[in-house]
Amino acid sequence: MATRTQAPFDALRASIRGDVLEPADPGYAAVRGTFNTMHDGRPALIVSCCGTADVVDAVNFARDHGLPVAVRGGGHSIAGLSATEGGMLIDLAPMRGVHVDPDRRLAHVQGGALWADVDRETQRFGLVAPGGVVSDTGVAGLTLGGGYGWVRRKYGLSCDSVFEAEVVCADGEVRTASEISNPDLYWAIRGGGGNFGIVTSFTFELHPLGPDVAFVATMYPVEEVGEVLRGWREYVEQAPNEVTSVCVTITFPANPEMPEVVHDRPVAIIGGVYAGDVDEGMKIMQPLRELGTVLFDMSGPTPFTGVQTGFDPLFPRSTLRAYWKSQYLDELPDAAIDTIAAKAQDRPAPLTLVNTFHMGGAIANVGEEETAFAERTAPYMVSIDGMWSEAGDDDANIAWVRSGWNDIGRFGTGAVYLNFTGLADETPEAGVATAFGRNLRRLAEVKATYDPDNFFRINNNIAPAH
To answer: Is 457 within a domain?
Structure first.
């Protein structure tokens, strides 16, 4: 930045209510920190925005001065797409306001909010916006990429509950995206990622839930994961839409609040939430607690905010190196279960996870072309979440994840979930075609309308149509 013309930079600093930081400035290091330490970018300039006007000024400055732009909402990008080497980082972290209108069942959420911020406000009124399974995840990134959470089978994806959004586009214009205002942009941001602009606020439709929910969290020995998954499959294939369930395999860290039997022990965790009457839900989900040798059972009526934060310790910020791959499955045959079980028992690092998600329900109630998010019919998704500590272990862990993903891919549809897709030596376009399928052409046309020069390209990138 030493060679730049000083006057425009001074004008930017004067106009921004938030902070404008260069590498030598106090606070720069704290702000630029990434979730995934594999992608430890050093932007030449950080603009921490306090509101939409700050975002507009930052976009205009970056465009006029030819600076590549990365956008950070909650900063939880596995692929490192909320970081950049050089260029400008537009940081929305100061913009975390949430306002709930309980009568209209709407929540207005700023673009830098985390799901913990949303849950804190909506649960005060016994309402929920479908979010993720880790409360530290950013609202914007998860929602723009689809958004799977604990109520997905009852209320669908995060993007399905977006009522409208305020978007700063590449030309610096602020547009409302809704069914009646820029409907093509509205269609595209519901699953199409950050390709079309910076969402400075969302309005979500809310749904009744909580404050307590029926919750299952039962730990079984990982050696029994094949048997457990067979029983789980039998259960979920007849479960009502109120039940959302997942099987997570991990080496559970030693925790003084947990019994010693699971300290540093590889386990299969069956998790489940019932979106309805708590007592009825505990009865309906009882079979999930009887799938094998129970090491520890944390099941019971639980505050939904407690469910949302339960997995947070497994995903600490700025601590782990991460490389994930996902795969959808049209069915879960025994051969697929055997493959998943083999990988679950051969994980190269304690916090590496092999997860099997049950989908369907409300997810499938939305047509494949109704939103940009195309995968609506697959009943299962398997995610291999590689996470480790040392840079010297990168090659071995990445290779292991890729190998496992290829093995499971023999049973897959070929489609991937981009929010669960890491990048190492892949390009930002990796997986885009398989994720969007027949929606990709329309997305490219919307991209050409709102971002013809591909200004927003540090994302799961969609090239504009020409």
So the answer is: no
User: 126: alpha, beta or left, given left = phi > 0 and alpha = psi -120 to 50?
Assistant: left
The residue among 46, 67, 91 that closes a domain is 91
- Note the pLDDT of residue 5: 60
Residues in the chain: 466
Q: How large is the angle between the packed helices 52-64 and 6-15, nearest 10 degrees?
A: 170
Q: Please choose, from the candidates 166, 169, 162, the residue with its C-alpha nearest in 3D space to the C-alpha of residue 177.
A: 166
pLDDT given at position 4: 52
- The reported pTM is 0.96
Number of domains, the chain:
3
Residue 342: inside a domain, yes or no?
yes
Q: What pLDDT digit, counting tens, does each position of 188-215 carry?
A: 999 999 999 999 999 999 999 999 999 9
CA gap 245, 332 in Å, rounded: 15
CA–CA gap between residue 310 and residue 323 (Å, rounded): 22
Please tell me whether residues 331 and 397 are part of one structural domain.
yes
The verdict on residue 459 lying in a domain is no
Q: How far apart are CA 411 and CA 245, in angstroms?
A: 20
Clarify whether residues 341 and 249 are in a common domain.
yes
Spatial distance between the Cα atoms of 140 and 382, rounded to a whole number of angstroms:
23
Q: Which residues contact 437 (CB under 8 A, 6 or more apart)?
A: 368, 374, 375, 415
Residue that finishes a domain, picked among 156, 183, 209: 209
CA distances from 59 to 4, 7, 267 (A): 17, 17, 46
226 and 365 within one domain: yes
Q: Is 262 left (phi over 0), alpha (psi -120 to 50) or beta?
A: alpha
- Dihedral angle sign, alpha carbons of residues 386, 423, 383, 315: positive
Q: Token digits for 333?
A: 């045959």
CA distances to 25, 77, 82, 190, 441 from 462, in Å:
34, 17, 17, 14, 9
Instruction: Name the stretches of the chain with pLDDT < 50.
Output: 1-3
Same-domain status, 108 and 65: no
Residue 20 belongs to domain spanning:
6-91
Q: Domain check: are 28 and 130 in the same one?
A: no
